[in-house]
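Researcher: Next entry in the queue.
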Amino acid sequence: MQTETSSPIPAVPDHYTTLEVAKLLGMAVRSVQLMVDRNELDAWKTPGGHRRISRASVERWINARGPAATQAGSSAAAAAPPVAARRPGGAAPAQVLLIEDSIHFQNLVSLIVQQHFPGVALHVANDGIAGLALYGQTQPDVLIVDILLPGIDGATLITTLRSHPQFTRSQLIVVTSLDEQQREPYAFALQGVRVIHKPSLVAELPTALAACLPAQRSVQ
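Model: Structure for this entry, 220 residues:
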């Protein structure tokens, strides 16, 4: 008489590869690498030099941001409505999306837009993940992005958006507190982009926006 034996239940791995985390979160591999560099995820390297990321730290990251965090990166482009539906007959106001985690600079940009471009609709996202989702929803005429953002940094966000055809209709302005030397690690995303140092925001942003929105007249 044979005794039936149950197969052992496979153990749940306590770590992921960088590629596995990128697929799980709907992000680029580079975004995940930067999250590790910012200590947002716990990671280590194998003797062969391959990075492994703690499963527990990934779950903590997801739980802290809610289920939408794993969907925003992959759904941003799909969520975009046709331009004609968003602005029938061109009657709707121009759309500007600001992705900035500082409340101070959110308020400052809002004040500048209200003062100089009262007909423009300004949308604000607090981090890169929310920014990706909101970009897909609004299809902005101008995108203003900070380089240093929680969740996904501005440079990686820009690179991600550039892979989608919808991005080609948006003008881009980068704002940052980093000086030119500190920006060097992000040079891959900043070539040909108007970059405004935050201390000069009040003086330079109105001119930059006027150039991006030629149909809008800046109120002096």
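Model: The longest helix spans residues 103-116.
Researcher: Noted, moving on.
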